[in-house]
Amino acid sequence: MIEKQTWSQRFESALHPAIARFNASIGFDIELIKYDITGSQAHAKMLAHTGIISYEEGEILFTGLEQIRQEYDQGQFQPGIDSEDVHFAVEKRLTEIVGDVGKKLHTARSRNDQVGTDTRLYLRDQIRKIRQQLREFQGVLLDIAEKNVETLIPGYTHLQRAQPVSLAHHLLAYFQMAQRDWERLADVYSRVNISPLGCGALAGTTFPIDRHYTAKLLHFDRVYANSLDGVSDRDFAIEFLCAASIIMVHLSRLSEEVILWASEEFRFVTLKDSCATGSSIMPQKKNPDVPELVRGKTGRVFGHLQAMLVIMKGLPLAYNKDLQEDKEGIFDSVNTVQACLEAMTILLQEGLEFRHQRLATAVTEDFANATDVADYLAARGVPFREAYNIVGKVVKTSIAAGKLLKDLHLEEWQQIHPAFAADIYEAIAPRQVVAARNSYGGTGFVQVREAIVNARTQISGK
Ligand code: ARG
Fold this sequence. Notes:
Elements: H1 17-23, H2 26-29, H3 33-49, H4 55-73, H5 86-98, H6 111-147, E1 152-157, E2 160-166, H7 167-192, E3 194-195, H8 211-217, E4 222-223, H9 227-232, H10 235-262, E5 269-271, H11 289-313, H12 326-351, E6 352-354, H13 356-362, H14 370-379, H15 384-401, H16 410-416, H17 424-428, H18 430-435, H19 445-459
Parallel strand pairs: 3-4
Antiparallel strand pairs: 1-2, 5-6
Bound molecules: arginine.
């Protein structure tokens, strides 16, 4: 039950227990406690610095808050629903510890600017962690790419075999996605890192506070210029959830590929026992649960982004209690992205084995070299569109004859077009097909090796 004195003498009776439970956020915003303490310590310092409270009082508040931090870390402080939210919980405990001076902490502050400050401090830490995890993920992709520059894998468009590519090239595509995620989060961070502290409930405060002082103590880059905006802005949360969703898109696409590759139809990878699970009824099965879960968890992060947009769209200025609904989605998205990045990194690192023999066969058993035949003719003066039509016919007759291009005799080639010579076989060999795509950003081995060097430099921070 909420104590009625929390709300001042205006209230006659306490909250109905069910309403208290409905209203409370302590069940989830306890996640913010260490940031709430840090924010409050900066606020206390500022109050003393500006002479709003005495220096001694500031010290008492700071030390009392530090004690709460320790109590919480040691599991001795477990606030219950009687506190409504983490902000009340900390303030109440502080007053128990330091006595009446604890009641001075909330001078020139509101829970509205306080919760905004806490959420930003929390997200800052989490963004740093996710960026670090992205680097590890990229590192593992690079390690595998380095070993597989000359491993060929069928490349697809429309999930139809198109042209063979270097496996390294394929993996480096995911490296680039993660690189954008890493950059995007830095950009999001720059808007997370703005201090709303001192915006008060909505309009600022009558006290001679120093917002730049608290911002500096808390390592914020700048302060909100408008107090109404400061307490009610959640753009930073939307941006974060959007960046998180895009990370999940990337992880989910990779997951989908791994799931396909592990199937009997593809057989491109084997899942190692440390990262695969069995079936409770079909003893022969080995299931790709990790990528399936990542793919599945993507939905909830998208959902949180959508929820946040909807929470915001009709909100009049400034703070509204609707904003309390931001937290669970943010926390869950942070936890989901972090867990998925960790799992996918481990899966790549030790859970997957590429089946080199099978890949080598896969790139020779189709018509994925047909473009190269057209290119061959085009390079010998036949206009490309004409060459394209000729090769279309070649493919058709080969299929009818149950042959692959490599199995056609030289005479057969020359009957099709006199420009074909003995070097056609070399030109359509998968290795050559890949090596020849040496345009910038292409799968040619020279390009891929260079891409790996560049990627290494990128993640080593040079
Ligand atoms: N628990 C609240 C939240 O998460 C804290 C701010 C409450 N402010 C208020 N005016 N009721 O948003």
